[in-house]
Specification:
The protein has 3 helices and 6 strands; from the N terminus they run E-H-E-H-E-H-E-E-E. By secondary structure, the chain is of the alpha+beta class. The strands form 3 sheets. It has a two-stranded antiparallel ribbon with strand order 1-4. Strand 5 and strand 6 form a beta hairpin. The chain starts with a strand and ends in a 14-residue tail after the last strand.
């Protein structure tokens, strides 16, 4: 399937030149509350969630794609306020999982399947 990745021009051109894409870390996402969806009045619980997020951030990267290249919000948030690039990638369907949001009261809840098959071996060095 054809998927799109939005980036500022500087990083997009570098991605093309180097034939690679930088993975985001959980602690460098544009929303500081990303991956901290649990709410608790307990300072100990909130601290435990922050520690768990930091541990995951040290071990896991994240690469986000869109099915559409024409979404103005994506251009605004991820492509340097409409001045960046949108790179298209042909990606094996088995390597992707959609993000599904569902409403729960006044909050949106993110549901993502984290079980992916192992990547296919690359023929490039």
């Amino acid at each position: 399937m054809l998927l799109y990745h939005f980036v500022p021009s500087r990083w997009g051109l570098q991605n093309i030149e180097r034939r690679r894409v930088k993975l985001a870390t959980l602690d460098a996402l544009n929303d500081p509350f990303e991956m901290l969806a649990a709410t608790s009045s307990s300072p100990a619980h909130r601290a435990a969630f922050r520690r768990a997020k930091a541990e995951r951030a040290a071990a896991v990267g994240l690469l986000c794609f869109s099915r559409s290249w024409s979404n103005p919000v994506q251009w605004s948030h991820y492509a340097d306020r409409h001045k960046g690039l949108c790179l298209g990638f042909e990606v094996d369907d088995a390597q992707c999982r959609p993000v599904r949001y569902r409403k729960s009261g006044s909050r949106s809840i993110l549901t993502v399947s984290t079980t992916l098959p192992p990547p296919k071996p690359s023929s490039r060095a």
